[in-house]
Amino acid sequence: MTQPVSPPRDSTGKLPPVDRLPAFRGLLAHTDVRTLSLLGVLAVLVLIGGVTRPDEFLDTRNLQLVLTQASVIGVVTVGMTFVITSGGIDLSVGAIVALSSVWATTVATQEYGFAGILFTAVLVGVGCGLVNGVLIAYGGMVPFIATLAMLASARGLALQITDGRTQIVGVRGLLDLGERDAYVLGVPPLVIVFAVVTVCGWLILNRTTFGRRTVAVGGNAEAARLAGIDVRRQRLYLYLLSGLCCGIAAFLLIVLSGSGQNTNGNLYELDAIAAAIIGGTLLSGGRGTITGSVLGVLIFTTITNIFALNNLQSDVQQIAKGAIIVAAVLVQRRTASTP
Amino acid sequence: MRKGFTAMPEPTSFTSRRGLLLGAAAVSSASLLVGCTSNASDDEETAAGGQPAASDSPGKPVTIGFAGPQADHGWLNAINDNAKRRAKKYSDVTLEITEGSNDTAAQIGQIETLINKKVDVLVVLPADGKALTQVGLKAMRAGIPVVNLDRIFNSPQAYRCWIGGDNYGMGLNAGTYIGEKLKGKSDARVVELAGLDNLELTKQRTQGFDDALKNYPNIKKVARQAADFTVESGQAKMAQLLQAQSKFDALWNHDDDQGVGALRAVEQAGRDDFLMVGGAGALSAFQAIKQDNGVLKATVLYPPTMAASAIDLARALGQGKGVGGLAEYEIPSSVTLYSAVVDKDNVDRYMPTGFR
C-alpha cells in the first residue's frame, strides 16, 4: 500500500511542491513528521487525561464517548479538507448542517420515517453544496463571499422552518441508532460512519485522479487549467462534496441529539477549519491531509473531554484551547522544518 | 414535600434585590405563587392558561407598540405568542408588533418607527438592554411610557415599569427543591449543567443555586459544566458530565431546550440513578415530568407569560389605571416574577404555558 508514490504528474501534468509529498502517504505514513507530531500531541493529551482522571478517562466508555463526539464535526472536516486543499474555503458548513438537520426533522419529513430523514438530510446538504459550487465555479464568486452568503441564508431558512422551535424526533428506529444496544462490537454506529467517511476521503484524495486534480487546482489553478483540468467543474464537485459531508453530519447530529434545531452546527466552520489547519492542510491550498485533519479533530475533542472530566469551566477551556492550537502548530513547524 | 415549599424564603429577600415583587402576584401569577407555595393538588378557580387580568371590561382604546428580539429560541418565540394572544383578548387594545431583530441598530430603528407612529405605550424586550437604553429614554421623553420586558435598561429613567424573570430565584428554587428531595441522604452529590457562561443571567442562576445548597450541609456540588442553550451543546456537555461523575444524586439543568440534548445523553448512557430538575418550562419538559418515566422530575419556571403580563401593564398604563388586586392607582414600577417549581403534582396546571 505504501509503495513510493510518484508525483501526480501523470494526471495533472503539474507537480505540487516537492517537499510536501510525504504528507500524501496518508494513513500509514510512518515517515511523515507532521502526522507523527500530531500523534505526539495526542499522546501527551492522553497522558494528561490518564494522570488527572485515570478511572474516568482511561475507560472504554470514554473512548466511545470521545469518538462519538468527534464524529459529527469529523465528517464536516473531511469535506472541508478537500475544499481547503483546492485553495477554497467553505464558511457555510455549520449553517448547512443546521438547515439539513432542521429540514429533515420537520413533522412532514418525519412521516417518512428513517429513510425520509436520511434522504432529506443528505439531499439538502448536497443541494446547498451545489448552489455554492455553481456560484463559485460558474458565477465567478470568491469562495469566501459565496459561502458567507450561503451561511447567512441557510441559517435564515433554518430559522424560518423551525420558527425558533426545537423539533424533537419521534422516529424510534433512528433514535435507537444512538443507543448503546446499537453498538457493533463496542463501536457506536456514528463512529463507523465517521470511519467510513474518513477512509473514503483518504482514498479519494490520495489514490484517485480526482484527488490529484484537487491538489493541482489548489497548487496553481492556472497551471492546472493549462494542463487540461476542467478547473471549474472540479471546484463544483468539491463544494458538492463538502455539502454532502454536511448532510451526512446533519444526519449523525439528528441521531445524536434526537432533534433538529436551527442553532445546530454553531461555529462548525471555525472548528473544521482549525482542525484541518493544525492537521497540516495548507490554508492557501495545494496540500491536504485527511489523516492530519482527523487527528486535529480528535485532539480538539480529547481536549474538551479532559477539561470536562476535570470540571474546568468554559473560560479556562477557551484560553487553554487557544494556547494548545498555537503550541501544536509551533511544534509541527519545528519538527517539519528539521526532518 | 409540602413542607419543603413553605420553607422557601420570604418574598422580602427578593424585594431588596430587585424592587417590588408584589406586583407579580397580582398581575399574572397569583395562582402560580399559591400553587407553588402550597404545592397541593388544588382546585382553585384559575382557568388553565388564562391568567387573571387587571380588568377585563373594555375601556379607553390603547395602541401598544411591541418590539422584541428575533425569536430564534423556543422561549423567545413563546414571548411573541404570549404578547399577541393577550392583546387579541382585549377589544380595546391594538398591537403594533415589529419584526424581531437581534441587531441593536435594527431594533433601535424599529422602536423609533413606533415612536414616530405615536403609539400610546411601548413594550420593549431589548436584544441588549444596555445598548437600547438611549432609545428607551427617547420614548419616555416623547411622552410614550415604556414597559421594559425582562432584559433591563441601564437607567430607570428609560422605562416606566420593568417586568421580568428572576434568575437568582430560579437557581434558589431549583436548589431548594433538590435540597429537600435529598434531605435524608448523607454525602449527597449534585451536578449542574449551566447555560451560556458569558451571560450575566447564567451567573445569577448559579449563584442562587449555590446559595440554596448552602442550606443543606449534606449536599456537595461536585461538578458544573456550561452548555450554550442549544440541544447539541446540552447533549455534548451532559455526556461528558455523566462520564466524569459515575455517581451523583441530582442534576440541575438551567434550560429545557438544552435539556432535550441532556436527556438524550442520559438515555444514551443508560443512566437513571439520579433526579433531574430543568429550567424555563418547555412543553417537552412538562410532558416528560407528567409521564414520570425518566430522570426529569421537575422544572423551574422562567415564565414566558411575562409578555402577556407586560401587555396587561401597558394597557393599564394607557388607560391610566392601576392593577386589579393592588390598592394603588398606578401600576408598579418594577415586577419580578416568581420562578415556580413544576413537578408531577402541579404540572397539569402549567401545561398550557409550556413552549415548544
How would you briefly describe this protein structure?
The complex is a heterodimer of chains A (339) and B (356). Chain A has 16 helices and two strands.
Topology:
The complex is a heterodimer of chains A (339) and B (356).
Chain A: H1 9-12, H2 33-52, H3 54-57, H4 60-85, H5 93-103, H6 107-110, H7 113-137, H8 143-162, E1 167-168, H9 172-176, H10 189-207, H11 209-219, H12 221-226, H13 231-257, E2 259-260, H14 268-279, H15 290-309, H16 314-337
Antiparallel strand pairs in A: 1-2
Helix pairs in contact in A: 2-15, 2-16, 4-10, 4-11, 4-13, 4-14, 4-15, 5-7, 5-8, 5-13, 7-8, 7-13, 10-11, 11-13, 14-15
Chain B: H1 2-6, H2 12-17, H3 22-38, E1 62-67, H4 74-89, E2 93-97, H5 104-116, E3 121-124, H6 133-141, E4 146-149, E5 161-164, H7 167-181, E6 188-194, H8 200-213, E7 219-226, H9 231-244, E8 250-253, H10 256-269, E9 275-280, H11 283-291, E10 296-301, H12 306-318, E11 334-336, E12 341-343, H13 347-350
Parallel strand pairs in B: 1-2, 1-3, 3-4, 4-5, 5-11, 6-7, 6-8, 8-9, 9-10
Antiparallel strand pairs in B: 10-12
Q: What is the string of SSEs of chain A from the N terminus onward?
A: HHHHHHHHEHHHHHEHHH
Q: Biggest sheet of chain B: strands side by side, in what order?
A: 2-1-3-4-5-11
Element pattern of chain B in H and E: HHHEHEHEHEEHEHEHEHEHEHEEH
What is the CATH class name of the largest domain in chain B? Alpha Beta
Helix content of chain A: over 70%
Write structural notes for this entry.
The complex is a heterodimer of chains A (339) and B (356). Chain A is mostly helical and 339 residues long. Chain A has a single domain (32-337), classed as ABC transporter involved in vitamin B12 uptake, BtuC. Helix content of chain A is 70%, strand content 1%. Chain A has helices at 9-12, 33-52, 54-57, 60-85, 93-103, 107-110, 113-137, 143-162, 172-176, 189-207, 209-219, 221-226, 231-257, 268-279, 290-309, 314-337, and strands at 167-168, 259-260. A two-stranded antiparallel ribbon of chain A has the order 1-2. Chain A starts with 8 loop residues before the first helix and ends with a helix. The model of chain A is unreliable at 1-16 and 18-31 (pLDDT under 50). Chain B has 2 domains: 2-165 and 304-338, Response regulator (Rossmann fold), CATH 3.40.50; 167-301, 3-Layer(aba) Sandwich (Rossmann fold). Chain B is 42% helix and 17% strand. Chain B has helices spanning 2-6, 12-17, 22-38, 74-89, 104-116, 133-141, 167-181, 200-213, 231-244, 256-269, 283-291, 306-318, 347-350; strands spanning 62-67, 93-97, 121-124, 146-149, 161-164, 188-194, 219-226, 250-253, 275-280, 296-301, 334-336, 341-343. In chain B, the strands form 2 sheets. In chain B, strands 2-1-3-4-5-11 form a 6-stranded parallel sheet, with helices on both faces. Chain B is elongated, with a radius of gyration of 20 Å. Chain B starts with a helix and ends in a 6-residue tail after the last helix. The chains are: A mainly alpha (339), B alpha/beta (356). At the A-B interface, helix 4, helix 13 and helix 15 of A face helix 4, strand 7, helix 9 and helix 10 of B. Chain A: This is ABC transporter permease. Chain A: Keywords: Cell membrane, Membrane, Transmembrane, Transmembrane helix. Chain A: InterPro entries: ABC_transp_permease. Chain A: The chain crosses the membrane at residues 33-51, 63-84, 142-162, 182-205, 236-256, 290-309. Chain A: It is a multi-pass membrane protein.
